[in-house]
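Example record

One chain of 950 residues, shown exactly as stored in the release files.
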Amino acid sequence: MIVLLSVGTGTLESTMTEDLSPAERYAAARRRAAEQATALASFREMYDFGLDPFQIEACQALEAGKGVLVAAPTGSGKTIVGEFAVHLALRQGKKCFYTTPIKALSNQKYADLCRRYGDGMVGLLTGDNSINPDAAVVVMTTEVLRNMLYAGSQTLIGLGYVVMDEVHYLSDRFRGAVWEEVIIHLPESVTLVSLSATVSNAEEFGDWLDTVRGDTEVIVSEHRPVPLFQHVLAGRRMYDLFEEGEGHKKAVNPDLARLARMEAQRPSFQDRRRGRAMREADRERERRQRSRVWTPGRPEVIERLDAEGLLPAITFIFSRAACEAAVQQCLYAGLRLNDDEAREKVRELVEERTSSIPPEDLHVLGYYEWLEGLERGIAAHHAGMLPTFKEVVEELFVRGLVKAVFATETLALGINMPARSVVLEKLVKWNGEQHADITPGEYTQLTGRAGRRGIDVEGHAVVLWQRGMSPEHLAGLAGTRTYPLRSSFKPSYNMAVNLVDQFGRHRSRELLETSFAQFQADKSVVGISRQVQRNEEGLAGYKESMTCHLGNFEEYAQLRRELKDRETELARQGVSQRRAEAAVALEKLKPGDVIHVPTGKYAGLALVLDPGLPAGRSNGHRGFEQHDGPRPLVLTAERQVKRLAAIDFPVPVEALERMRIPKSFNPRSPQSRRDLASALRTKAGHIPPERARKKRSQAADDREIARLRTAIRAHPCHGCNDREDHARWAERYHRLIRDTSQLERRIEGRTNTIARTFDRIVALLTELDYLRGEEVTVHGKRLARLYGELDLLASECLREGVWEGLGPAELAACVSALVYEARVGDDAMAPKLPSGKAKAALGEMVRIWGRLDALEEEFRITQTEGVGQREPDLGFAWAAYMWATGMGLDEVLREAEMPAGDFVRWCKQVIDVLGQISAAAPVEGSTVAKTARKAVDLVLRGVVAYSSVG
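Predicted structure tokens for this chain:
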């Protein structure tokens, strides 16, 4: 492997030929003539701009027959290298597959290549679309190529090059494994072109590619073709983040640092309570301060950027609703960024792109409000939008007809939509579990959109001032280029049967050990081993320091530890006993009981709406088995409906009162919650909570504790004057032994981890008769055709005939449970389900999942490791059923309570799995395959059918 580092633009060799001798000039002329005969020379003539050094180096390596990994910033032109692979394939009479992580990027690349080579030469394959699949150049999502490799598709014949765009996606914990599967299983004759964002461990990734794919050149370019300037917008002033004129050692702008200090000194609420005169002085000082600095509103930001000539701009807001609200705020503020001519062009393009949408659906989709924003040059962009609407926004933005886009971070993932400026409202986002600071890698990814190559001289990243902002922290985000590539590879059931079918168990195990995940794990073991050696040296020193002249101090220290452990154990038993009593008390609760929640976020008066599942009735779900009792759904006195956990009840709870819950009560209705909470406060607000009585400590009567205390007092070392000093060294000695043992277990755990997980999966599949030694059974062949998180559950449902006799709409409802995952937690009420056969089938699916879940626990296959079957989510079943029965879009979206874009995306995933089921279902004696095809036709209508090319 060769690593080439490109740090700037410029010519590769000196042009000062006047200093060369005649022989040297002749040699240079020969070199130029040789270069003109290369494929790269003819490729360069196709572009009206020169190539950068890193692009030339990568193309030359490809033409020399090597694989390449190109890591370069967003917008630097990495895709030129991918396009050269296409050029080479066509020149050599071979095929080239161009893979992308998302359908939108596939559509974009397909359109680009069609413009260059013509529709007849280029094909497109996504989960639900197939255009010219036998073409010489085919653009596809990575999953499609993975499925081809496992199926041994004839389309792979003649394949010479595979371009993996956005290969850093292999860090994605949900889909990243697919990239590694493709890299490992591609035929050796295929040359791999990997295009990645700037990652800090490109060389490590390149080492792995070298191992599994052969000779691979790693080309890293850290140069941005359009320089990026960082700013903070506070009040009316735009501050530069870094002070100019410091060269590479940039310092934080002192004016910005001074502003942060002044903000920190603003009077607090407590300060304002010290006398009227003091309060007046504080208010005056704060008024003067606020006149200088505030967080500008969204319309104000856009107006400021427009005045500074910094449009078009993308404002990243980490909330879909906030993106839509931002557009409305700009419209209400009367913001207009387009003139009459631009408005006409916008209307023409929008009407052309949306002509296939039925007029009755336009109002439901918010078409007219969306169009008004577009005509003014303002739009939102997020995953909840209809794909057609998103594509129109992208096209108008690239054409310069939309100048301000409010987007979620999904826009940063690959879509070619550069801007002059990028605005970040906040440096905190919701990561699915909590609000967390964005990482340097995320900051780099987001701000990488700023600066359009060939259009802008410079790009601008603008962060809005927020109270408590640290300029030093922001400078750290902007100045750090740490974005390591971490493998998320995990074996799955589908992967296991496909591997065993193709290679047998032994060879499959060897292949999995060549994964990037195992490569990284093996490298990390080296450092841990060194730490173990250092610990062992430290243990000898600690042992010497704790030596006591009166006796064996190690023995004495052991007695002290045993005493401490016994006391801790008794305390834990007391807690467990109280929890058990609390769980028994919870099981006695009934709907309508008024209780006092003793602790936690929702402590206080509450009304039980639903007592929850009693202990033990968990249907095999490991998450529920771990808690000791029910999780009651309650209405608090503050009008919140929440599902509580055992942790909220450290002591037993009893009903204080009883209340009738009206049949008309709707927990989603604010008015309903307000009325019932008011009645709750009236009924029981005056009742004080009972205080828990303290019990005698178990330690006071414990014989083992008494024995240990006697032994400690009788030990010779107990009388040593340096006893406590020796004890500190003994504690360090014990702690280091414990740490060393943990490190040794980590070494053991990281060695052959992927292969061990594979062994457990194979054992479970053997138990279920999917595998018999080296043979893949009929059931295993079926599983090999089912891809997705719940592949084994889908296969078991086919095997047990759960879906036999269902109608197409009922089958669509059942299949939705295999793909859908709600964006909210488990506080929501039980989802509405279609009645009859569909409801019974969904219940049977949950029962089968419970059996599989128990089996996974038996074979030590855990979801925390990214392996195993999650619980099927029934939240989309009613929407899928209504849509498949032909109900209108307005009614379905209202019932589903979800944006059109989410609805379309889930429907397309349902269609994808229905297609897999129609291919995998038994041909004889089963109606499922035929029903699945009918279901596809019923779901693929209206907004779902006309949503996008792919």
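Notes: Confidence is low (pLDDT under 50) at residues 2-17, 268-278, 615-627.
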